[in-house]
Design a protein that fits this description.
six-stranded parallel beta sheet, homodimer, 3 domains, 45% helix
C-alpha cells in the first residue's frame, strides 16, 4: 500500500494522481445510452420489456409482470427473521427522525414599503429511486433514498430495481415496505432511467431520479438531467481516516475502518492520514493481518493497492489541509477532541467524530443519509436530504402603494437594458 | 396569436405541443464543445486567449489583458449618472436583504442515546458566474448571481463576461462593483466554462458555475457538471399570466406584462390564461395595439406567434390545473385574492401576486432572485439562492455508550449485505 509524506518534494503531484478519477466518458457507452433513451421515448413499455428480457434475462412476458404489488413487499418484510426485522426497523426510525429535522417551511415577511416577500416550499409530486440489483443490492440504499422523499411529502415514490433472471433480494423489498415506497418495477439500466424520465404507458413519469447505479445508469442520469432532476453522478466510495497517534487509538480498529471502504469495490478509496509515523506503520501491519481473514480480501487488496494510501503529515494543520484537498465522502476523526477540528473542515460529505463512530454506523443506522458526494464533489454538494425532494417558489406581493417605488426602479433599469415592454409594464404601476 | 380552450377536445395535445421545447442536442455542437474543453485542459491560458481572439475578435495579446482590475469596476460605477447609480444601488440592497433570509446555519442535537447528530453548513470556496456579453448583457444578472454567493460567504466570486471586439457594457461592470465580485475576466463561450471548471495558469478553478449563456455555454456547463457544480441548464424565459376578468383588471397592463416576456427572445413564451372570454379578446386587442409601438416588436411578434397562447379555462380549478401543468418560470396572478390560490399552486419559479406586481419588478428589484427554473423544471427545481452557494456535511458523534446499540444494528445489517469488514468495524465498538 502506497505511503506518502507531505515532506516528499512531489507530494502535491502524488496526491493529485491518487485522487484523479474520471467517470467513463466512453463514446460507445454514451451512444448506447442515448439510443436506449430514444427507443424508450418512442416505444415505451414494449422496448422496456424487451431490454429487460435481454439484459437481465428476466423471464417476464408482459410489462405488468415487472411490477411488484405492495402486498409482496409487506410479505417480504413479514417473512424476515426477528433480528433482521428489528435492525431494519431501528434503521428506518432513526433515519426518519434525523431527516425530519431537514424539513423546510414556507416563509413570508413584509418589507418597509408594505410589500410581502417570501419563499413557498412544496414537495416534488413524484420521484423515482434507482436501486442496483444483483450483488450490490442494498436494503440500506432503499431506506436512504426513499425516506427523505417521504419525509419531504412526496406523494408517489417509484422504485426501480433490476432482478437478474427474475431473482430479487427479499431484504430490499422489505426495506421498500418499511420506507413506504409506492410502486416497484423490477427494471434497471438506462432503460429504467429513461422510463422514469419520460414515462411509458405503464411506468409513470417522475420529476426527479435519485440513487446509485452502474456506468449505464450514471450516463443515462446525466443525459436526462434537465428533463428531470437528478441527485448526482456517483463515483466510487471513499473514506479518509485521520488520527494523531493518541494513546486511545487502536490500530486494528483504524485498519478495519479503512478495509470497510476498500471491500466495497476495486476502485473504492481508503486513505489514512496521521501525524505519527509509528501509527502509520502499525496500521499498515493491522491491514495486512485483517486481510488474511476477510471474505472480500481480493477486492480490498486491489482497492488498497491502486487507490489507497497511508499519508504522513507534520502536524494537525497539514492534516486539515490534506482533508480539505481530498474533500472526502466519509471523514473519520479518530482524535480525543474532534470538535476542535470541526471549524477547520470545509469539505466532507459526512464527518464521523471520535473513535466510537465508525463509518459503518453511518452507513446503516446513525440517522444521516449515506448517499454522499464522492470524488471531491463535497466541495460543492451535500448529502442526499429532504431538501432534494422539496423545491421553492418565490412569493412576491406588492401593495398598490408599495409597488410604486419598485416600479420606478424597474422602469429605469429596464430602459438601460433596452427592454421597453419591461419598462412600460413597470411604468403602468406608478404613473 | 394562438387561442386555446380547455373545451377543445384536443386541448391536452395542443398544450403539450405548445410547451414542447428541447434544448439543442446537436452532435456537432457537442463535439465542438468537448474539443474546446479538452484543449483548455491541455493548453490553458494560451488556448483561452486564442479562442477569445477568434470568437470574440478581442484585441488582447496576452491573457492578462483579459482581466479587469477592481479599480476599473469602481470607475465604471463612479461614472454612471445619478439615476442609474440610485436604481442599481436600490436593487443591490433589496436583493441582499431578501437573500440574507435564505442563509442556513449549522445545527446539532443529541439523541436519546447520548450521540450527537447534525449538519454543518459551509459556503463554497470559490464560484464562477457567467454573464452573457453583447446584446443581452444585463447588469441585473450580475446582481442576481453574485449577491447570493457573497451572502452565502463565498470568499472568491470570479465573473466571466465576453467582450466582443473588446467592448464592455459599463453597467455590467458597475453591477460587478456593487455586488463585490472579486475578479473579472472578459472571456466567454465554452472556453470560459472550461477555464473555470479546470483552471488555467491565470484563471482560478472554481467549485461551481452559475449564470445563463448561449447554447455553447449550456452544453459546456452540462459537460463539466460533476467536475464542478452548476446551477441549471437554462431554457428560454416564460411567463404565465392568470386572470378572471375582474373589474379591476386592465387589459393594457396584462398585454404589456405578456409582451415584457415576448420581447426577450424569439423563443420566449408568454401564455395568458383566463376564465373570461371577453377578457381574452380584450387582451388580444391590447397586445396588437402595443406591438404597433414597441422597439422590439419584431422579436415579440415572432415569440407570440410561435410560442405564445391565450388560453380560456372554465373556472379557477381548471386554471390552477393548467398552471401546474405548465410549471411556469414566472407566474402572475392578476386576481383580487391571490393568497387564496397559493395553496393550489404546486409548480412555479416565482409567483407575482396581485395587479401591482408585474414580472418586471421581480426581474430587477423586488428582492427574490430572477434566475428561475424554466421549461417546466419548476416541477423539481428552485430559484437560484444562497442555498446554491452553501453545502452541508453530516455530523455524527457517537459516545462510547451510545455507540454500542447502533454498532450492533450496523453489524447485523452489514452481515446481511455480505460486507464483512463493515460488520467487524462495527463489532469492535460494542464487543
Amino acid at each position: 500500500m502506497r505511503q506518502l509524506s507531505t515532506q516528499d518534494t512531489d507530494f502535491e503531484q502524488q496526491l493529485a494522481t491518487l485522487l484523479a478519477f474520471e467517470t467513463v466518458n466512453d463514446a460507445n457507452l454514451l451512444k448506447t445510452v442515448d439510443d436506449i433513451i430514444a427507443q424508450v421515448r418512442l416505444d415505451g413499455d414494449s422496448i422496456v420489456l424487451a431490454l429487460t428480457q435481454k439484459f437481465d434475462q428476466h423471464p417476464a412476458t408482459s410489462i405488468h409482470e415487472l411490477e411488484l404489488s405492495k402486498d409482496s413487499l409487506a410479505e417480504a418484510f413479514a417473512t424476515l427473521d426477528d433480528e433482521a426485522k428489528t435492525a431494519l426497523t431501528t434503521a428506518t426510525t432513526r433515519v426518519k427522525d434525523f431527516h425530519q429535522r431537514q424539513v423546510q417551511e414556507t416563509w413570508q415577511y413584509e418589507d418597509e414599503l408594505g410589500n410581502r416577500l417570501g419563499q413557498k416550499v412544496t414537495p416534488l409530486d413524484r420521484v423515482g429511486i434507482y436501486v442496483p440489483g444483483g450483488l450490490a443490492s442494498y436494503p440500506s440504499s432503499v431506506l436512504m433514498n426513499a425516506i427523505p422523499a417521504k419525509v419531504a411529502g412526496v406523494k408517489e415514490v417509484i422504485m426501480v430495481v433490476p432482478a437478474p433472471k427474475g431473482v430479487l433480494n427479499q431484504l430490499v423489498l422489505a426495506a421498500a415496505h418499511l420506507a413506504e415506497v409506492d410502486r416497484v418495477f423490477t427494471i434497471g439500466g438506462a432503460q429504467a432511467v429513461a422510463a422514469l424520465a419520460y414515462g411509458t404507458e405503464t411506468i409513470p413519469q417522475v420529476d426527479k431520479i435519485t440513487g446509485p447505479g452502474n456506468k449505464f445508469v450514471a450516463a443515462a442520469k446525466r443525459a436526462v438531467f434537465g428533463q428531470v432532476g437528478i441527485d448526482m453522478i456517483a463515483g466510487p466510495s471513499e473514506v479518509l481516516v485521520y488520527a494523531e497517534g493518541e494513546a486511545d487509538d487502536r490500530a486494528d480498529w483504524l485498519a478495519m475502518d479503512l478495509l470497510s471502504q476498500a471491500e466495497h469495490d476495486r476502485v473504492a478509496q481508503a486513505i489514512f492520514v496521521t501525524t505519527c509515523p509509528k501509527q502509520l506503520a502499525a496500521v499498515a501491519i493491522e491491514i495486512e493481518k485483517a486481510l488474511n481473514n476477510l471474505p472480500k480480501a481480493d477486492i480490498a487488496r486491489d482497492s488498497l493497492k491502486h487507490r489507497g494510501a497511508l499519508v504522513l503529515v507534520k502536524d494537525r494543520s497539514e492534516g486539515m489541509a490534506v482533508i480539505n484537498r481530498v474533500a472526502p465522502e466519509h471523514l473519520e476523526l479518530s482524535v480525543n477532541d474532534p470538535d476542535a477540528l470541526l471549524n477547520d473542515i470545509r469539505h466532507a460529505g459526512a464527518i464521523f467524530m471520535g473513535r466510537h463512530t465508525p463509518e459503518a454506523i453511518g452507513d446503516y443506522c446513525a440517522g444521516p443519509n449515506h448517499v454522499l458526494p464522492t470524488s471531491g464533489t463535497a466541495r460543492f454538494s451535500s448529502p442526499l436530504g429532504v431538501y432534494d425532494f422539496q423545491k421553492k417558489s418565490s412569493i412576491i406581493y406588492c401593495s398598490e402603494s408599495g409597488s410604486k417605488p419598485l416600479a420606478k426602479t424597474a422602469d429605469i433599469l429596464a430602459q438601460r437594458e433596452d427592454l421597453d415592454a419591461h419598462a412600460r409594464s413597470a411604468r403602468y404601476r406608478y404613473q
